[in-house]
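Exercise 7. Given the components listed, write out the predicted structure of the assembled complex. Treat all entries as one system.
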Amino acid sequence: MSGFLGLLTRDLRLALRRRADASLAVLFFVLSAALFPFGVGPEANLLARMAPGVIWVTALLAVLLSLERLFLADYEDGSLELMVLAPQPLELTVLAKALAHWLTTGLPLIAAAPLLALLYNMDPAGLPMLILAMALGTPSLSLIGAIGAALTLGARRGGVLIPLLVLPLNIPILIFGVAALDAALGGLNPRPHIMFLGALFLGSLVLAPIAGAAALRQAME
Amino acid sequence: MHRFANPGRFLRLSNVILPWIAVLAAGLIAVGLYLALFVSPADYQQGESVRIMYVHVPSAWMAMFIYTVIAAASASSLIWRHPLADLVAKASSPIGACFTFLALVTGSLWGKPMWGTWWVWDARLTSVLVLFFLYLGHMALMGAFDSATRGARAAAILALVGFVNVPIIKFSVEWWSTLHQPASVLRLDGPSIHPSMLWPLLAMGLGFKLYYLALMLVRVKSELIAARLNARAATAAQLS
Amino acid sequence: MQQANEFFTMGGYGGYVWPAFGVTALIMIWLLAASLRRLRENENLLKQMQATTPRRQAGRAGAEGRAS
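Answer.
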């Protein structure tokens, strides 16, 4: 456990030292979401109806941005080799890395989402649900993304490959994330969607460390 | 050379059964085509366009069947390090992608006269599209490494992760389409199928499966020879 | 003639039915041909290598024999 916390604080400290990188994902999130009105026009009703989908899709893409670096720096400077050899289970290492990624990417996205909701003229009554759905969904994005990042270590064009591997697996999160928000905005019961988001989170919490650790081991062989 | 001992037996076996499978596949597809185009009746609702079913449905079956084969091969590669399993997965992936593509294209060609559009975001079409992306990712990852074994291992992990996800994706897409789909769309899985349509479908389905088996054997053999070539090239490089 | 015509128009759906069967046949045949071509190429390469390597090894042995 101390190894887990140690790795987590190390990664967070590294991220803090390079704040520009972390804020890049948020900037991308806001900027790309701000492009849609130019594409579909400024009509307020249309934008309000699109808001849940746009926010979730751009969040999905923004999370991808920082995935390539998740293991790459450690892979290149050799510290990953030490992590594989360390007594601490590699699954915990993957979990710590994914958690650090979520704290530096997912959490800022959640903080920026209300701003986008405001820009899109979304009903403010949906804001708590937006934050709840993103709080349950974005950790899964980091976890599934960690699998993709681990699999592409040492690959040619790894950065281009990650979206191809990760995006199809993220579709369920997108579906239930948007559905929860749509239900809340439409006055329906968002509970089942939220439950599914939670189930997906728990599922990826189990699957991602196992698959990610297997991927790291074969990358180090 | 002991590593090729098992593949050697595989090669001998495949050389014996390959001609039989190939002939059987060609025969079944020929019979299936004859039944599909000449014998089976036109549907009372969909008219002659229903004949597209005889290539569309077997392609869709193959798309799912081959992904299952890849997942099983990946599991045996990761657990038992069976040297042939990686090759089976590698040989199967492009075939599966082709059948998935065919399922999409023929589905589109069926959808245009039936639904009036080339594409609807129907649960089935959408999940097949996602399956196509999974195939592309698998192929891309397999080819992205300088070392073939690393590519095979990474792709095997991805295939298993994808396999766990396929039912989840399918379920969530169905959930999603019932939220958004207007109910007016004609469902393809209507009443139970008549035997005059079932037989050509089964003949084509089995023919496609045997075609895949024959093609897979050819491709695995090709990969085995390529591995032997690489091994020889490596030893030659070491010697010189 | 009339019958053949009816067969090809497929009750007005010929423009959909035939492309569906055509693209299926095209891709399945192309995949088969490409796989067979690759197998033949690899087989030929292996044959070539098997024909040349023993000779090269014999040449090396001879050179080593002379050097020693």
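Discussion: Chain C touches chain B through 30 residues (CB under 8 Å). Confidence is low (pLDDT under 50) at residues 58-68 of chain C.
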